[in-house]
Design a protein that fits this description.
CATH topology of the largest domain: Rossmann fold
CATH architecture of the largest domain: 3-Layer(aba) Sandwich
Number of domains: 2
Helix content: 25-40%
Strand content: 15-25%
CATH superfamily of the largest domain: HAD superfamily/HAD-like
Number of strands: 12
Strand order of the largest sheet: 5-4-3-2-1-10-11-12
Distance between the termini: 22 Å
Radius of gyration: 18 Å
Shape: globular
Length: about 260
C-alpha cells in the first residue's frame, strides 16, 4: 500500500463534498477513510465558521488543519493563523447598503434555515462568524457598487454557492498555501496538492494546486481554470467529489482502488 503522507487534499464543503441541497456526504466516506489510512491529509476549506467546521470534521471523521470563512483563518491544532479582518471592521463597508442586503449573521434562525436548508443547530453555528459577512442582495444591480465600495476600503467581495461574502484581502488560496508551507516545514518533505471546489470562492485554491477538480453544479460549471491538470466532473456533489478526486489522483499516478459509486 503506497504511503500518501506527501499528499494534501483541500476540499470545499457545500456543493463539493456535500450535496448542495441536502448536504449528503456518505458516499465520500470510504475514499476519505482510505486516503487518511494511507497517510494523506484532508483539509476542509470552506466559507463555513470554525464552529461549523468542527461539527463537520466530526461527521466526516477528518482531523488536522482546516480553513474557515473563505481563507480568513487557518486552524492547525491549537494554533489559529488569522488572515482576515474582524467583522466589526467589515460592517462599516456595509452601512450604506444596510437596507438592500440580507445578512446571514443577522437573520432570524428561521430565515437562516429558509435560506440554507440547514438544521436549526447548524443554522446557529453558521451565524457564529468572526471574519466574513455572507449576504444576499435584494437588487442584484447593486453588486458592482458594493464590490467597488469594498475595494476602496481594502476589503473584497467573493461569490459562493448561495451568498456573496464580504471579507478582508485574503482567500482560500492564501490559506491553502499557508497550510502547505506548514506541512512541508514539519515533514521536511515536498507535498503534492489536490484541490476541489465549485464556485468563485474556490478558484484561487484550485489554481495553485497540482491537480484541480471543478464540481458540476445545477447551473453547470461555474468556474473555468487555465490549469492543464483540471478535471471537470460530470456528476454533482457528493458523487462528483469521488469522481473528480479519483481522476485527479490518477493524474498524479495515485490509484486508490475506490470507484466513484
Amino acid at each position: 500500500m503506497d504511503d500518501l503522507s506527501h499528499l494534501l487534499v483541500f476540499t470545499d464543503l457545500d456543493g463539493t463534498l456535500l450535496g448542495h441541497h441536502d448536504y449528503r456526504f456518505e458516499v465520500a466516506l470510504p475514499l476519505i477513510q482510505l486516503l487518511q489510512a494511507r497517510g494523506a491529509t484532508v483539509v476542509l476549506a470552506t466559507s463555513k465558521t470554525d464552529e461549523e467546521v468542527k461539527a463537520w470534521q466530526s461527521r466526516l471523521q477528518v482531523t488536522g488543519s482546516y480553513i474557515v470563512e473563505n481563507g480568513s483563518a487557518v486552524h492547525s491544532g491549537a494554533e489559529v493563523s488569522v488572515l482576515g479582518t474582524p467583522i466589526s471592521d467589515l460592517e462599516k463597508c456595509l452601512e450604506p447598503f444596510s437596507e438592500e442586503i440580507t445578512r446571514l449573521d443577522t437573520c432570524s434562525p428561521e430565515e437562516v434555515i429558509a435560506l440554507t436548508g440547514l438544521s436549526p443547530e447548524d443554522a446557529r453555528l453558521a451565524q457564529s462568524r468572526l471574519y466574513s459577512v455572507p449576504f444576499q442582495l435584494k437588487d442584484s444591480g447593486l453588486e458592482a457598487a458594493l464590490r467597488e465600495s469594498a475595494r476602496v476600503t481594502g476589503y473584497r467581495v467573493i461569490k459562493g454557492g448561495r451568498f456573496l461574502h464580504l471579507q478582508g484581502m485574503c482567500d482560500k488560496g492564501d490559506a491553502a498555501e499557508l497550510v502547505r508551507r506548514q506541512v512541508e516545514a514539519a515533514s521536511k518533505n515536498i507535498v503534492r496538492t489536490v484541490a476541489l471546489g465549485d464556485n468563485e470562492n474556490d478558484k484561487s485554491m484550485l489554481e495553485n494546486a497540482d491537480a484541480a477538480v471543478v464540481l458540476k453544479t445545477d447551473r453547470g460549471h461555474q468556474i473555468q481554470l487555465t490549469n492543464s491538470n483540471t478535471i471537470y466532473t460530470e456528476q454533482l456533489a457528493p458523487e462528483g467529489w469521488c469522481e473528480g478526486l479519483g481522476a485527479a489522483l490518477a493524474s498524479l499516478g495515485i490509484n486508490t482502488g475506490v470507484t466513484d459509486g
